[in-house]
C-alpha cells in the first residue's frame, strides 16, 4: 500500500500528470487577472473530511478516497468527532454516501451521494448540517434613538422582527443596564452566528445599522455590542449589459443572513448600461461597502454577479459566466455530464451539479475544464448507489470566485442543496473585497 501510494505521490509531482476523468480544458476566454490563482498544495498533506450534525460529529460514515484514475486509495470511516482523513495525490476525488439519512426525517430519496472532484492534498472537506429546530434566544442590543422597530438578520437562519424598547408598563422589550432585550425564536441556527441589526422608523424606512461577527449563543442568550452607522445612498453604475439579458434585478445582501433585502430594485436597463441609487447598510459583516447582487435571465440560464468592497462601474458583459445554449444531458454508460455554452470573456473555475434518478441524488463539485464532466466511477462498495435508470440533471452551475476555486472547494457541498450561492458568498464576503459569479440552468419543470 505504501509503495503504491508513493507512486501516486511521485506521479503527482511530474509535469505530465493528467486528471483522467476530466477532459482537456476548453478556451472559454481570457483568464481574469484579478482572480487569485489556487495555491500549490503540499503533496504530503492529508485530505480530511469532517461531518457534523447539530454541532456534533457524526461517526461511522464511510469516506471513499480515490485517485485521479478512480482507483480506490482508502476507505475510512469517520471517528467519534466525525473526522476521517487519508493521503492522496492531487486531482483525486472523495465521495460519501448518505451522510445524514439516518438523522434527516425529511430525506426524499433512498440514497444521497456527495462527490468532490479535483481534490488537492491538504483540502479540508466538511459537511455541517442541523435540524430546523426553533430556539428561543434572549437577544440584548443597544437601542437607537428614533427607532420604531428593528430587523435582526442572523447568518444561516433568517430575519426577525424586533420591537423597539418600551417602558416596562407596556408591550415590547424593556431596556436593562443600557441594553434593550427581546426574545427571538431563531430557526435552525448554529452555536456561533453573524448578526446584523437595522433600525427602522414608523414608515419602515431604514435609519442605521451595525453588525457583529461570531456572536456566541450561550445559555439561550446572545449579546450585541456595537455602534450604529447611518444608512447611506450610493450609486451603482453598470455597462455592457447583454442585449438578451432580461429580468434585471439589483439587490443588496448586506445582512448576515444573505437574504435579498431592502426592496430589490427592478432595473429596466438598455444594452449600454445604466445607473441606480441603492441603500448602503454599513456593517462589518461585509466591510465598509455593501455587497450588491445583480441577477439576469439569459436564454435558459439565470446569471448572478455578487460583489463587495467596490463602488466603481461594473462591466456586466465582461463579468458574466458563459451563457448556456443547451440544457445539460447525462450519458449513463460513460458517466458524462455535457452542456454547451456561448463564447464569453470569462472562464469558469468550477462546475456544481445535481444529478438524480428514481432512487439516488448525486451532488458533485469539480474544477471546470470545458463543456463536459466525466464523473468518477463509484467504488465497488457503492455499487447499489449507482444510477440505474434515466438520470435527470436537476441543475448545473458554472461559477468563479475572486478567491479561487480552492477557497470554496472544501465547503462547496456543505450547503442547503438549492442555495450554494447564498452560503458561499457569505463565507467569501469576510474578505475585504471580491466577487462570486455564477450561471445556473435548471431542469425544466
Can you walk me through this structure?
With 445 residues, this protein is mainly beta. The chain is 6% helix and 42% strand. The strands form six sheets. Strands 4-3-6-7-27-26-29-30-22-21-18-19 form a twelve-stranded mixed beta sheet. The longest helix is centred in the N-terminal third of the chain and has 11 residues, at 2-12. The radius of gyration is 23 Å and the shape is globular.
Number of strands: 30
* Broad structural category: mainly beta
Mean pLDDT: 77
Number of alpha- plus pi-helical segments:
4
Radius of gyration, whole Å: 23 Å
Question: In brief, what are we looking at here?
Answer:
This protein has 445 residues and is mainly β.
List keywords for this structure.
445 residues; 12-stranded mixed beta sheet; disordered N terminus; mainly beta; 5-stranded antiparallel beta sheet
Task: Give me the secondary-structure topology.
Layout: H1 2-12, E1 47-53, E2 56-57, E3 62-66, E4 72-77, E5 83-86, E6 92-97, E7 111-119, E8 124-129, E9 134-141, E10 149-154, E11 158-163, E12 180-187, E13 192-200, E14 206-216, E15 221-223, E16 229-230, E17 232-239, E18 246-252, E19 261-266, E20 273-280, E21 292-298, E22 301-308, E23 314-315, H2 316-319, E24 329-331, E25 336-338, E26 350-356, E27 360-367, E28 372-374, E29 392-401, H3 406-409, H4 420-428, E30 434-442
